[in-house]
Amino acid sequence: NKEEETVVTQEADMDLQLNRPTWTRQIEFTLAGIGCAVGLGNIWRFPYLCYRSGGGAFLVPYLLMLVVLGIPLLYMELTVGQYMRRGPVHALANVCPLLKGVGMASVAISFIMCTYYNVVITWALYYLFSSFQAPLPWQNCNNTWNTPHCTAHATNSSYSSTASQEYKMLEQTSGVEETGVLRWDLFLILLLAWILIYLCIFKGVKSTGKVVYFTAVFPYVILIALLVNNTQLPGALNGITFFIVPEWDKLLSVEVWVNAAAQIFNSIGIGFGSLLAMSSYNAFNNNVLKDTLTISIINSLTSILAGFVIFSAFGYMSHLQGIPVSELAVDGPGLVYVVYPQAFANMPVAQLWAVMFFFMLLCLGLDSEFAMVEVMVTSLMDEFYQHLFKFFKRKELFVLAVCGVAFFLGIPCVMQVGIYVFQLMDHYTAIVSIMFLAFFEVIAICWSYGAKRLSDNLEEMTGKRANIFFRICWIIVLLVFSIIQFKPARYENYVFPSWAQGVGWVIALTSIIWIPLGAIHTLWVLPGSFMQVTYIYLVSPHEDTVGTTHKIPVISIWCISLTETETVHHTTCTG
């Protein structure tokens, strides 16, 4: 009967927690967390936003948002993941069943992102292979794909283009309306990228933990080497001065503050479920605050280090063109695959620096991709462990199936229309969807579950409660979401047509829709009226405390019982 099935399910669930693997060493989680947080956004999005926001003036709101937004929310996610010892779906369902769809949405977002994010790794591999040529293929205009408007050196003329701008990797069409053909070379490199991902994660945290020793540390060696080289180039000081000397009037712009909040938010990866899933493999008494501070601070320091590297190159380019740094034509994605290759072309030993730079991008991309795939694998294993093991027999085969599905879904991004598909998916997933998801995640954890109960869990694990600063930030952070402004997707000067924007919203809804669906399912299966269940979960969830007598964290669930007169009362039950 149903009661016996429930008991069997609860016993299997507890067995899964007891047998859950943990990181071999805690440093492996720290490095994996750094690798997850530190990504391509630190290399191109941060310098680009800083450049657009007036250089040094951007650092003021950026560091402030790190303190009041980034660190508290990361602390919240790591605490929930480590205490519940589950992936985002089950962790959020235990925190607030009415908003259990938030966990499902985070899994959906991570899976959608991993399908197109690996295309960035594909581009890095393409440029890496091309960097072994002498001269570099984007170093001159003597190639078959160059147009008559090609120039060896950058200019401000709208009628000319540099060799790096004309490089043949994308061979993009004129717009999303024209699909073009499949780029077979990119298709094969995409397949290679997924093979690399699979070989790095197929053993779970045991294999990922070993890989991150290299992929998380090596990019810093490259960044430091690039910085030493760039600072010796003529004009580099002008670029660095632009980076660290603020234009104070820019601080009066709301957009600068919004950009700073968005950069902290997307860079650390709040709401994606990646760090929450990885923290579920931590030892129960691990020091959460130490990991939080390490990951968030190193992430921001990496952005600042990348800023020095990029802006020193900007200074060199402005010296070559004879114009101020503020007048350079710099675009977001083009910073990595157009502007910086252009700078390499004029450096001594250009091939060496190109190989080092694109190999660094590969390492940064791999770390982030590990985390996104792990979210999907962890969540499905938590939910359907018995069924999946019965069908696939081995976890390695299940991971292979997930990678295979993601590979096929990413094929449109390696067609000639691919850059437009990529930009559309990235905008409506990494910007639009994630803001909705994170808002409801904070509602579920900080309001419904409660900052007090979260502090109780933290005290059970580490012996220390969250201080008042973090509890205040967990509540105030809701105000930040109210000022976030959404803008339609665009790629350089190309504005997507209305039907493409509609497709973008459909992409966004494939993840957001799980939030209301999860709430509807909870209201459907639980006894009581709509108002009674809503009151229990959202209005008065703070009245009870969680039992803390087990060495293994107790999964707390809200139980509802109705009297004959349908008067609702609730207790905290342990499973």
3D structure, described in words:
Disulfide bonds join 141-150. Keywords: Disulfide bond, Membrane, Metal-binding, Sodium, Symport, Transmembrane, Transmembrane helix, Transport. This protein has 575 residues and is mainly α. The protein has one domain (1-127, 157-169, 181-559): Amino acid/polyamine transporter I, CATH 1.20.1740. Helices cover 66% and strands 4% of the residues. It has 21 helices and 6 strands. It has helices spanning 2-18, 26-37, 40-52, 59-84, 88-95, 101-130, 184-201, 205-215, 218-230, 236-244, 254-268, 274-279, 288-321, 334-344, 350-392, 395-409, 418-462, 468-481, 498-512, 514-525, 530-539; strands at 150-151, 161-162, 490-491, 494-495, 556-562, 568-574. A two-stranded parallel sheet has the order 1-2. A two-stranded antiparallel ribbon has the order 3-4. It has a two-stranded antiparallel sheet with strand order 5-6.
Strand content: under 5%
Q: Count up the helices.
A: 21
The shape is globular
Supply the CATH architecture: Up-down Bundle
Low-confidence stretches: 1-16, 540-575
Whole-angstrom Rg: 25 Å
User: Strand order within the widest sheet?
Assistant: 1-2
Q: What is the average of the pLDDT values?
A: 77
E-strand count: 6
**Helicity, as a percent range:** 55-70%
The total number of structural domains is: 1
CATH class: Mainly Alpha
Name the helix and strand elements from N-terminus to C-terminus, one letter apiece. Answer: HHHHHHEEHHHHHHHHHHHHEEHHHEE
- What is the CA–CA distance across the termini? 19 Å
> What is the makeup of the main sheet?
2 strands, parallel
Helix/sheet category: mainly alpha
Here the CATH topology equals: Amino acid/polyamine transporter I
Protein name: Transporter
Transmembrane segments: 27-44, 56-76, 107-129, 181-199, 211-228, 256-281, 293-317, 352-377, 397-422, 428-447, 468-486, 506-526
Subcellular location: Membrane
Membrane topology: Multi-pass membrane protein
